Amino acid sequence: MPRQIPYIIANEGCERFSFYGMRNILTPFLLSTLLLFIPIGDRTAEAKHVFHTFVIGVYFFPLLGGWIADRFWGKYKTVFWFSLIYVAGHACLAIFEHNLEGFYLGLALIAFGSGGIKPLVVAFVGDQFDQTNKNRAKLVFDAFYWIINFGSFFASLLMPLFLRDYGPAVAFGIPGILMAIATLVFWLGRGKYVHVPPAAPNPDAFSSVARTALLARAPGQSRPGLMVAGAGAVGALLSLCMTPSWGFVIAACTALVLLLAFGGIGVSMQLERARGLHTDQAVEGVRSVLRVLIVFAMVTPFWSLFDQKASTWIVQANTMTSPMMSLFGWEFQLLPAQMQAANPILVMLLIPFNNIALFPLMRMVGITPTPLRRMGLGIALSSSAWVVIGMIQLWMDGGDQVSIMWQLLPYALLTLGEVLVSATGLEFAYSQAPASMKGIILSFWYLAVTVGNLWVLIVNAGVKNDVVSGWIANSGLSPIAFQMFFFAAFAAIVAAIFALYALRYKMVDNYRKTA
Q: Which stretches are annotated as coiled coil (predicted)?
């Protein structure tokens, strides 16, 4: 095992405590403190909007961090400097606990800093391995994901208590201290890391090949791919024009989705035209990336379901009863935000269970648990979790008092889905990425989270529409129950499509060949 791995794992554990420590108390803080000036009937919707806008920012800025690392600074320097911005953001949250503009500035800095380093730490782990020890990479990626949830568990359990008992300055200040420690630990390992230098300007880079494919002319043929990409650009401009009615976040993210989707389709239609003008290896590399992006696109519904455990599920838990519990003579009641601690503790149990028992058993009966099979099953399980949470909501809408402990079942289903999708996705994204694009391709993996949260904002905005709200009222479901079953159906349909695509996908191996 590379000796530098403990520094990266320790850094990730502290960083994840800091991130989830503030993230998991963000919705309760917004509802109870920062947004009190908003009428109570609109406060929940606004809190969800702020939360998911923040998450969109966190998972958008990996594009910037990945580009800077791949082209200019390298992964180590980019992670270090963005981490300092991250620490400054935490400081703003603690200082501006009652100042709207100052607090939002802190959220913006955290989104920028956290997002900037997010794809790079994962890729940096992969850089420490080569063909001689790549068999240990899966173990380390699992350990990496395990430590994420170790930090998340204690953050989810403790920070709601600190928020309740000591106030937001302390509750947001402690994660800031942990992020400062994470930065220090990462810096201490600087002399032991394998540093893969930034890629030099490459005439066969993904963007160069894509541009050539779109613009190249073929004798006697039109350029249908360019027309498709142009349609995406027009759609993006129209989306930006809708900013006054949609809001900037929805309009800008929709524009980005249209550019990526139609641009990718256009490039794939004319990719063979780049052959001869670029190397065959470069053309096949672009083809591989486009196939990976299709996988990423189909994972977006999972993220729309998963991230709502920190918004929609907390809103539901606020209206549930919390029974008195006893542990070694200590009596306590679970706070709604503390239910999120069920997710990381289950992850820490399920990752070793899958590797020791589930996957070997599947192999014994002749089923190979390939990455895409695991991810498709995970999306389906997330759908089932939302069916259960929707049934609980129907129970509550009927007037019954429901214990918060009933949320454990959907948490278990969602967490099993997370282990199969997210932990597998990190490994899949690194292994499928061409050498010159590992930072960028992982940025696109995180961009899938941005798009997933975009679906949430669009659905929430749609529910406010008079026509849609009238249709929901006629359905006999409450708005929150309708959204729950809608997201469950959304994920189930995509899981079926994902399974069909997985049958056709051919895996590649892009680990380094030498140390």
A: none
Domain holding 87, by residue range, is: 1-195
pTM of the model: 0.86
Summarised one tens digit per residue, pLDDT across range 189-241 is 888 888 888 877 778 888 889 999 999 988 888 999 999 999 999 999 999 99
Dihedral over alpha carbons 182, 188, 190, 194 (to 10 degrees)? -80
**Two tokens, residue 171:** 């509750």
Strand partners, 278: 275
- Give the Å distances, CA to CA, from 68 to 207, 211, 221, 393, 435: 15, 21, 38, 45, 16
DSSP classification of residue 419: I
Give the H/E segment covering residue 112: helix 100-127
Do 24 and 310 contact (CB within 8 A), yes or no?
A: yes
Distance CA 301, CA 489 (A): 10
Both 348 and 475 in a single domain?
yes
Residue 283 lies in a domain: no
Dist. CA 120–CA 159, nearest whole Å: 27
Predicted pLDDT at 413: 95
The pLDDT value recorded for residue 512 is 56
Asked whether residue 81 falls in the same domain as residue 158, the answer is yes
Structure tokens at 179: 């992020």
